[in-house]
Structures are given as structure tokens and as C-alpha cells.
Amino acid sequence: MEEFDIAIIGGGMVGASLALALAQAGRRIVLIEAVAPDSAAQESFDERTTALGNASRRILEALGVWNDLADQCGVIRAIHVSDAGRFAFARLSAREQGIEAFGFVVPNRVLGTALWAHIRDHERISVRMPCSVASVRADATGITLALDGQSALAGPTLRARLAVAADGARSVIRREAGITASEADYGQVGIVANVATDMAQDGTAYERFTAAGPLALLPLRDGTYTVVWARTPQDAAATLAASDADFLGLLQQHFGWRVGRFVQAGRRASYPLKLTRADESVAQRTVLIGNAAQSLHPVAGQGFNLALRDVAALAELLAEEGDPGAPELLERFAQGRELDRRGVMRFTDGLIRLFGDSRAPLRLARDAGLLLFDLLPPAKRALARVSLGFGGRTPRMARGLPLR
């Protein structure tokens, strides 16, 4: 039976990032993934895009992958927030905040290609793929993983001192560890597509709150936008079935004319929108990160940025000498990340509930809040710093410092 310091289950954006971070720490790592990163069946690297905050950019720089991404990212130089059918809106400018950009928009396939190119070249990372975990048995000194799949032929079991669950919102490792999770269904479906307009793009990201849910436009490198549109399941089904011309007309009707006329649409994809939170983030010889620990609504683009701070914080702790699965170390991780996780979940969930409430007093309060925010420089400076986290200690890599 092969033995490792750390087994990472899930080779999507979060698990792959952690593998590269831990390889810098000198740990012997095995990365277990069921689907090849370049497969059409790989959900992590699909048609979606990801908005990266500045702290996430620093983490990816520390991992050595940012140079592979920079030329393929859209740059968010301004943010425009509005409430559909109302008079209030708020604007933020990166230049006014003294920064180059609020963030960067990268296609998930591009990010996956960059991460896995570095993983394949790294001697400290062993890869089992295609391979899945059939069962887990933890004890006081380590954790034994029974494997299933083609790569399991190299050894049907392996042992590690720590297992990291990066296998998504339906995490097998979370279930095997006996950790329960709560789930709240927003009653929305996210529709994703790339669209072009007849007006030159200026690097502005738009978040428009509609009665059915938020509608975001994020600037891409080629001058187009990616649309992330939350709709009711019934409306989503009709939107997905519509012709391109009808889809563009519907989008124009709900978004308006701030970016000109929508003239072209790419392939549409969809996924259900839910809030999932594990009741614990650690168990015996096990730690949860990314969607295995918390899966968020995409509003404000916080999910992957929060997950990368999980990665950076965990890698920083595991870079220390000693047992990577020691209970006291895992408890330090859980306590250190709780404020940030709780803050992000409250922020994103609160936005959905606030802007989804049609009662007149709340709508007036929203309008007043947006107008006040637009007039208050301190509030804008605070929002510009959200990529550093919502509480607790900011990991070293997120601050542009080396892992150790």
C-alpha cells in the first residue's frame, strides 16, 4: 500500500490549487480525480467563467500559474450595481481606489489547463486518474482510502496522514467522515452564456438585481461578456429552449441598454443555485475545503475566491513541521477560517434575500442604501478590499507573501 502525507480528493480548481500549494511545502501528495481535466464531462472546467479578486490573483501568482492566465483574462476596472425597475444604482471605479483592477475574469477551461500543466510537471504530486474513492477508514494515525476506477489498478488502496475533501457540494469524503450538511434551495437556476454587443466594452462588470434573481455581465478578454443570469426554474427552461434571437431579446428586456444592443450569443448552460454548508469543516484525519465545505450563490462572485483563501490558509498550516492530520492543527484551521466563511455566506445570502424581497419598505430601503453607498468613499474602499476576506487572519499568499 502506497503511503502519502496528504491525499487530496478532487482535482477541480480548488483541489488542483491545493496540490500545487502543498507541493511547495515539501509534502508528499496524491491527487485523486475521477474525470480528466480536458474531458467534456469535467464539470469544474466547463463553459463558466470565474471572477478572481486581487487576493486570488496573488495566490495564483504564488502557485506559479498566473503568468499562464494573465493574457486570457478580462479585467474588471469598474463595477455597476443596480436594482431593476428602480432609480438607484451604485458605481465603483478601480482608479478611484488607487488599484489597477477590482478583479479578473478567467474562463474555467483556461484555469484548469494552467493548473494541470503545472501538476503534471511536479515530482511531488502523484496523480490517480480516472479514479474515485469507494470508502474511507480513519484511525488515530492516518486514513485508508479504498479506490475504484482505472487508476486503482496501480493499487486499490492507499494511506495518508490527512485526507482533504475537495470533491464538491456532493462530497463523498464529507459523507464518509460522518459530517452532515445543510442545504437551502434558492428556487433559481443559473444560466451562463457568452454574449457580444454592438458597443465597445470598457471593463465594467454589471450586477443587476431583478425580481427573479441577479443578472451579472462580466467583461471578457475579447471584448465580449459572460452572462450569469438567475431565473426561476420555469423561466430558465424557456430561456434555454429559446432561439438565439429570442434569448438576446429577452436579455435586452431584462438588462436594458447600458452596454448597447446584444447581437450574438454563445452556447447556453445551466445549473441549480443552492446554499450548502457543512456542519463541520474537519473530522478525524479529514478536512473540507471549497464546495465540500460551502457552496454559495454566484452573486458577487465570491465562491472560488473564498475557496482559494481556504487553500492558502490550509497550505500555510500544513507547511509546518509535524503531523499534517493532527487534531490540534485541524482545529486551528477550522477556527481560523470560520469568520471568513460565515461572513461570505451571510453577505451573499443576504444580498439574494434583500433584493428578492418585493415589499415596498424594503425596496425603498434598498434604493436609499445604494444611493448612500454611491456617495460614501469609505464604503467603497471597504468593498474594494473584500478579496482579502470577511474576517480572521488573511493567509500569507493572499497578501503577496511566500508560503513560508
Structure, described:
The chain has 404 residues and is α+β, with helices and mostly antiparallel strands. Helix content is 33%, strand content 29%. It has 11 helices and 20 strands. The strands form 3 sheets. Strands 5, 6, 12, 13, 14, 15, 16, 17 and 20 form a 9-stranded mixed beta sheet that branches. Strands 1, 2, 8, 9, 10, 11, 18 and 19 form an 8-stranded mixed beta sheet that branches. A 3-stranded antiparallel beta sheet has the order 3-7-4. β18 (282-283) and β19 (286-288) form a beta hairpin. α1 (13-24) packs parallel to α8 (303-318). The longest helix is centred in the last third of the chain and has 29 residues, at 327-355.
Task: Outline the secondary-structure elements.
Elements: E1 2-9, H1 13-24, E2 29-32, E3 49-53, H2 54-62, H3 66-69, E4 74-76, E5 78-83, E6 89-93, E7 103-107, H4 108-120, E8 125-128, E9 132-138, E10 143-148, E11 157-165, H5 172-176, E12 181-197, E13 204-209, E14 214-219, E15 225-231, H6 233-241, H7 244-255, E16 262-265, E17 269-278, E18 282-283, E19 286-288, E20 294-295, H8 303-318, H9 327-355, H10 360-375, H11 377-384
Parallel strand pairs: 1-2, 1-11, 2-8, 5-13, 11-19
Antiparallel strand pairs: 3-7, 4-7, 5-6, 9-10, 10-11, 12-15, 12-16, 12-17, 13-14, 14-15, 17-20, 18-19
Quickly list its features.
single chain; 404 residues; alpha+beta; 9-stranded mixed β-sheet; 29% strand
Structural class: alpha+beta
Largest sheet: 9 strands, mixed
Q: What is the number of helical segments per DSSP (H or I, 4+ residues)?
A: 11
The level of helicity is 25-40%
The Rg value, from CA coordinates, equals 21 Å
Task: Report the average pLDDT across residues.
Answer: 91
Oligomer: single chain
